[in-house]
Amino acid sequence: MRVSGTIDRAFAPHCRLRIHSVGNRSVQVNLVILLLWLVAACLASHSQPVDAQDSDQDDAPQKATPVNGDPSADQSTRINLPFKTYGGTQFWTDHCHKQGYRIQSNWATNHWRLLDAADIRRAWGTREQCETVLNRLLVDASPEPESKEYVILLHGLMRTHQSMRSMQRALQQADCGKVICFSYASTRRTVGDHAEALQEVLTGLPDDVQISFVAHSMGNIVVRHLLADLEQNGDPAGLLKRCRCMVMLGPPNQGAAIARRLSYIGLFGAVAGKGALELGPNWSELVGKLAVPSFPFAIIAGDLSAKNMRNPILDGASDFVVQVEETHLEGRESFATVPVLHSTLMKDETAQRLVIEFLQSH
Fold first, then answer.
1. Cα–Cα dist 134/129, whole Å
2. What are the C-alpha distances in Å from 209 to residues 176, 228, 262?
3. Which domain holds residue 286?
4. Contacts of 25 (CB under 8 A, 6+ apart)
5. 286: CATH
6. Which of 106, 282, 301, 362 has the most crowded CB, counting CB atoms within 10 A?
7. Global pTM?
8. pLDDT of residue 22
9. DSSP secondary structure letters along 26-38
């Protein structure tokens, strides 16, 4: 399947904002306003209600019984009171996915926890303690239907795995295989750190499955970093040969102009983190650590030109965050644009249809 798209490069002169000097007061004011708008939009996206399947907004404790097992029988685990969590926001990164369970680490405290499919904490402490409980739970768990196809979803900067739930449902309904949402602390670690955690998750999957990726924004750069790591440092689990295809949604494949310009505000680095700075002013140091997928991949970019929407600090067509030209990457099999905002690319029905068509054709 080949999808073609057009790029509208027209940009109304009266809408442009040129950055001539960091000291220009009006430019700084515009940058501050845009940064605050982005932060507010991110917070608003986390506060929206979710349906029963997505329900992770209730932190009320569940039945307060130890789930780590009988502490008198096994002192290697901590007593756990199971309670509902948010499933991992900007503090938690996944390292293991097995039968709906996830083992995560906290970037600030360096402690670990085990969550079930409903995001209820089932164990906490060290990684070894969480693995002990997980192995015990898997013994009693009903075996999952076997799938030879796995699709890994990756969210973008300042988002969580919940932002990919709509895409997850669409792929499941289309029978695209077993779908996993990889969650990582996007604002608190480097792209390389996220790639390392992703490699752990993939290594823990059955060794005979095919792997595809659907990533939004910075999630694409995490995958590209992982691919380069496997090529340069070795691939003992044979992950590269099992990668089937990938769809990139709004990928900043050429770095992000918006991150470069917002980086002049000291608050940007504190809010958006090291990864955002790598996409912006530190892009030249990061790009050499990224690989171009050796397997088929497609790119879907947001283009708001038809709606006459322009980000005042970006030149050319964009989805208000990533410029269309920044999404390009040599070797892509197909390219398309959809007229939606960057933050809603993965929820757009047209984008989801294109993703499904690409996955099913490879």
1. 9
2. 13, 21, 41
3. 149-362
4. none
5. 3.40.50.1820
6. 301
7. 0.81
8. 36
9. HHHHHHHHHHHHH
